[in-house]
Amino acid sequence: MASLKTYARKSILVFMAIALVLGLASFSGVKEAQAAEEGDVAAIVSGMSLDEKISQMIIPAIRSWNGANVTDLGAVPELASALQKHQYGGVILYGANVVDVEQTTRLVSALQANNSQMTASTNIPYFMPVDEEGGVVLRFSMGTRMNGNMAVGATGDAAVANAQTSGKILGEECAAMGFNVDFAPVVDVNNNPANPVIGIRSFSDDPARVAELGAAYANGLGASNVIGTYKHFPGHGNTSVDSHLGTPSVTSTYEELKAMELVPFQTLIEQGADMIMTAHITYPNVDDEVVFGDGVTRGNYPATMSEKMMNQILRKDMGFNGVIVTDALEMGALYENALVPGEADSAEYSVNIAEKVINAGVDILLLPKDLNAPDVVTFYDDYIAGIAQLVENGTITEQRIDESVTRILNLKQKYGILGMVASGADVDQKVAAAKQIVGSEAHHADEAAIAKQAITLVKNESTTLPFSGYDSNIVLLCRDQNENALIANALTQLQETGVVASDAYVNNLASGQTSGSQNSSTKITIDYYYDTATSEMHYTDELKSAIAEANAVACLSKMFNLASLQPDGAIYQSISTLIADTHAAGGKFALISGHLPYDIARYSDVEAMVLAYMSSGTAVDPTDRNVNTGAAGAYNANIAAAYKALFDDVAPTGALPVNVPAMVAADDGTVSYADTIQHERGTSLRYAYQFTEGMGASHEGGSTECELSLSGLGLL
User: Fold this and answer.
1) Nearest Cα residue to 258 out of 203, 189, 333
2) Which residues are catalytic?
């Protein structure tokens, strides 16, 4: 009962802190004559100049100024003045802008206050967006990383609740520091294992499941009045090129898109989606061919620029009336192939890109260029003037501009952004409240709980798992040297809870530290197998000796792309060598798939496979407390849970959220994905426990049954 009361008190404190941020903290001092007081968006639009309307459709970034990261607006008065030249719709912040909770909260507040001081027909507060997806994509290094979408998708019947919890936690942390838009969740269907940019950012390769979890995530964001953004329309899941670097192309027909990629978007539109982000991807079997900037070359525009994809399909066919925001316009996909006239880095080229984007039906031009130097200030002057010229000569109609500005202001009004002017007077209260929320112990506890539920067992032969931890000689391997603290911390927790013997002799070869008694029947060696400095295998004589004597070896694989599984790659060669040497010595091998789950098809000769779905943040020591909040920073809970699952602390309950195809080797040995499925979506094994008297237990490996007892090791 006492613990419930403590939890209730903590919940009330968190609720009060959030209320302070959302209520006291945001904005004050509404202009008496401002039409937004009564919510008259039409009156505001009619009173705006063309420059103000166009500027409202633009969101620049401010990562740096003259080479130095922008973390304090007061330290860069030139930038502050530059932002006041135009009535921008918002400003997006990145990791370069984030140091800690207090600094970030003050920066966001200062940006809103600076915007409120500009001369304009009406002061319209900023959208303050951030890419805080959780998992592999996040900006708050001092916050709660959460587990990533694919890990959430692996939590089975609990996935909807976990998706909402993920959105809720990230939304609370965004709102606490003053952000009102999150460019999340990703609702791409990861139906291409070779995808280089989506992968574990996707919930699943099942479109209906993606829609269900995407909606729950966005509902979680909305609980803190943060606008969710579904991305990347029409779908980035079936690509093999990263649109940050090049131009992906999807050959699906419209009917195929409607059966797969468009399913989540259609479902979410019908549920009232507010904002959708575009993808810079071409669809040659759906879209119309156009003539590129040289007047000769024919091809397809990326969807962001396509009237058919944006207006005909998204607006008309699918019925979306909300705000469409581009993916960053600075990305490489828009600068390949000379899509429009002009030099690629010029204002002329960017204006011509903007013309296609606006006429396609898009509302917000995200990040045409980073506002990072005086010459970029001039670029934006020319950019806005160039778009205005296109309106004046009829290439873009002012009605089309008004449509977008109206959608933007309607959305700002819906979320309480419109009509308020930032006072800045309550920034100390904002900071105090934010410190109680961002990276809080309560948030990390929920993160850890989801991580445990996500752990998936797909293979367990010869009673390999769980390791008993009492009469074993075990080697635990991470990939990089700087990850050993995460493993060491997980092992310490296992010893503190009695899962691993307290006197176990632990030899951490990576750190050079030892603990426990050499006379203990449990001996555990920790090391890493890949040297990032040399890009070669790290395999010392000490490690070879430990593997030769081990009953079992557990190794963390971090697959980011198919290249890491090729036979000539150092990562594949390292893990293959470790598997072979373990087997030669009579030991068993457990693979921890730490990132993309498709690596389990490559290492099919191991006895056990455990999946964790996200390996970012593994270099962050979870015991390193943040001096500003008292909480740990954005560390990785998934991998820690996976190492604990090797023992008796976590009973795997996760299920594969994607199909894992088999791999096929070409004549030259290179591998690719086959058409056949090796591990089906939904695969989910369990440990079977048969408890004896007291704390003893015997384990039946490879069973799909799970018989747990409250009188056992406390696993329920």
Assistant:
1) 189
2) 244, 327
